[in-house]
Structure formats: structure tokens, C-alpha cells
Amino acid sequence: MYSKDGQSYFIVDGHTHFWDGSPANQLNRYGEGFVKCFYDYHTNLSPYEYRWTLEEFERFPEERMIYDLFESGYDDVAVLQSTYLTDWFVNGFNTTAQNGDIAARHPGRFIVNGRWDPRDGEAGLDKLERLQERWQLKGVMLYTAEWKGDSKGWKLSDPWAYRYLEKCRELGIVNIHVHKGPTVYPMNRDAFDVADVDDAATAFPGLRFIVEHVGLPRLEDFCWIATQEPNVYGGLAMAMPFLHSRPRYFAQIMGELVYWLGADRLLFGSDYAIWQPKWLVEKFVDFQIPVDMQGEYGVLTPAMKRKILGLNAARLYDLKVPGELDVA
Questions:
Q1: 75 close to 108: Cβ distance less than 8 angstroms
Q2: What is the pTM of this model?
Q3: Residue 298: left if φ>0, alpha if ψ -120 to 50, beta else—which one?
């Protein structure tokens, strides 16, 4: 919980990872390059006092994660997103099983999200069903640019992706998080394009498509899609750190998102361990659209910030919110 100036905020961190990017787990140069690309984002966009060494970043202990999220940080609940990348990491980068283990040791702290890849065919559908039975999944994290053998990506509009979305609907997995953001080495930029979200959201109105990183650098495309698709949401991981490095750019991002989507469909995410929730939450609560931009973008009120920092995600994941905070 975070409180400032008489306002309290229930924090749901919608995008966190507990990964193993250590050299021992790197299968090849692509795994090494992937971790170092993440690390560049970390060092370039974090305040100096929150920067880690590369060794710390590659593989951090469970105790540090708990401290950073819930003790030093202000998270009340964190969503663990699964990112397998088994073509690049021996045991996967962070799998549902790995996330489930840490969640089991810290009951009430984490929501475990699964993952699927349509290129796994029928066997993958069976595996998704087993994951749902084991972890009672309410969400999945999809990486459309993930490499698999000779394939360097897939689309939500692919026939096999539809099979998996139908399975999600059948199993009650309604929160479909999709990485649609900046290119991460060595993935291809076009495989993160947001256009396929439009197709899937129309075809599956009962599912919620949380577009992680709000489509950056394709913010305009994302906003136009989300305007006409009421089941499309914006995950603010990757956008949030611009609070520190480029606050006017962040104001533009938030101004566009609130104009097109409103504050009800935006979800806070730290993208831990790339960034830490402590400074992101503090800076976001203190942040305001600059005066010279307010004529076009308006202002961010405490009520809007409460929705973005936790109430919206709590609604999607059926989380109990303290009564005094469960107000618009």
C-alpha cells in the first residue's frame, strides 16, 4: 500500500518476472544478447541509485525480489508473467512452473500467469489445460515474436492461435497479455506489430487483451485499435520509466492513452526486474501533466491514478480491495 498527501493507493503490479538469465542458463548467443538488451533498458532508463550490476541483473535471489516488490516497494499483489524462450535458455527464461513455485512460498502475494505458443499444436493445448488445472490460471502472457526453430514469430490472427484463444475461453482464462512493445534483441520488430490484436479482439469479445507496453513505439496504432475494441487494455510496463528519463514524453503517452481509452483500461506494471515499483509508484503519484500541455491532455487526478495503479487490475483478476479504496 502507498499513501501520499492523504491519498492511499492499492498497488497491483501487472507485469513482473522472476527470471534466470545467468550465463549457466544461456543456451547460445541469442540468450546472452536478450539479457544484455534488457539490461541496457535497465541502465538507460533507471535512476542511478536503482541500477544493478549485470551479474545482479542476470539472476537475482528470491529474497531480493520479495524485498523490492513488497517491502521496499509498495506492491500489494504482483502478477508473475511467464516468458519461456526455450530456444535461447536451457531451462527457460521464466516458466509457469518456476513462477508457481515462488507464488506457493508467498501465498496471497502473486498471481501466476501461464503461456502458450500456437506452434506447439495439439500437444500445447493439452499442456495449457494441465497448467490451468495446476495453477487456476486467469491469465496468460504471449510473446508473438518468440523464436521457435525456423520460425521467428506468429500472429494472434493465425488459425492455430484461434484454437488456443478458444481453449482459453473454454477454460476461463480471460486475461490475455500480449507483448507488443519495443524490439528486444534478437527478435524482429514486425513480429511485435499490434495489428493482429484488432482481429483477435473482435473475434473474442469475451476475452480481455492487455497490450503490454501499450504498443510502443506504435502508440498511435494501439490507441486507434483500443478505441474501437472495448476489450483491449493498455499495460504500462516500459512506458512507466519515462517518468524519470523523459517526463514530457511520458506526459504525451499518458495524455494520448487517457484521451483514447480513458483511465479505466490502463494497468500499472513495473516490468521487474528491469525496473522497481518503489520509484515508479512514487514518481507516478507525484506526476502531473505539465501546465502547457494540459489544454490538450487535461490532468491526472488521484482517482485516475488509483485506477491505473491497482483498481483496474484488481477488477480483471477479481482481487479484494480494501473497502475505503475501492472507489472510483
A1: no
A2: 0.96
A3: left
Dihedral angle of Cα 315, 318, 324, 325, to the nearest 10 degrees = -40
- Backbone phi and psi for residue 181, each to the nearest 5 degrees, phi listed first: -140, -155
Do residues 267 and 304 make contact, with C-beta atoms less than 8 angstroms apart?
no
Distances (CA, A) of 58 to 49, 69, 94, 206, 270: 18, 17, 12, 38, 17
Q: Residue 236: which of 206, 204, 209, 214 has the closest Cα?
A: 214
pLDDT digits (tens, 9 = 90+) for 22-62: 999 999 999 999 999 999 999 999 999 999 999 999 999 99
Residue with cell 506452434: 119
Of 257, 162, 245, residue with least CA distance to 216: 257
Torsion from C-alpha of 116, 231, 179, 316, nearest 10 degrees? -80
